[in-house]
Amino acid sequence: MIKHLSILYCLFCVKLSVQSSPDSTNLIQSLVAIKSQGEGNRKAMKAWPQVSQFPPSAIPQLLEAMNRANDLGDNWIRAAIEKICEQNTTQLPVQRIIAFLQDHSNQAESRHMAFQILQSELPSKADQLIPSFIDDPAPVLRQKAVELILSKARNSSAKPKAIKLYQKALIQAREVEQIKEASRELEEAGEKINLIQLMGLLPEWQLMGPFDNSERKGFSVEYGPESGKGLTEQHKNKDGIVKWEKFSTQDELGLVDINQKYGELKEVCAYARTTFHSQSAQSAHFRIGSKNAWKMWVNGTLLFSRDEYHRGKTRIDQFIIEGKLQEGENEILLKVCQNEQTQSWTKQWEFNFRITDRTGSAIHSSGSTIK
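^ that's the sequence the OP posted. Answer follows.
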């Protein structure tokens, strides 16, 4: 009995020291502070064994740290949390983890990690939470709630009930395969589905290019379309004068294949522009899918850029950027770059694009998108 009390006392002391000691905050910050080029990696390697021995009470603090970490730091923190859970399966701060999960201000990946903890250690509790994700702004959580609806639809012996479930899944889904499944089932039941309209994908653009991207330098070059006179009718590339030309995609999910316009070129950039009419000034999510390097401007302001090529595949809502629409006409300008790689999986030069509210529900343009 005395031995057990001594152990409990020691655990209690460790718990207090982790929650109150500045050292614990500094150790966690070592994992958060790793730079994309590996700067700070040595410090993180030294800190991780100590962080991985924290008591379960530190898990919410570590989840919060994931909000601030880059991909490298995220992996270090995730591994520490997994180690803590392995060693302390019966002492998890369940209510605090649930509170973190339900707070939409936390990052999607850290909230998903909170769910994975519950799913691993308390699967019945995790299952109870899944229906609440149906309007969740985090696609990875929302997908679980939609899958639950699809499962009920598949297993329903009553056709009218199944149709209602598929309709609900289609409205709420953000993941392409789930959208395709629900729309396919509804079309087989006699309903006509327009996925571009439903999801608010923008199929009508003007394209200009190609511009030089030799040695990937073109990404940072301010060619004519992104200059102060960017929306004028013509600009100069290395071969002469190029003009804006209309391009309309026929892809059911709004994929703009730039190769269709210019061929399978390498080491080039192209610009795409469209006009979006908003009925009011409002906050919005600008959602782009592309496996190429790209930049995005809204009304002349650069909102985001990504100088990375051919990692994964092009997906709906692959990148989500917060911004604002002004009332009336809004100019959307994209720069999409292709690099020098020649493997078959690097030939794609493409993007899809839509504008939504925070939950991913489409905001539709109230007027023509192309002048």
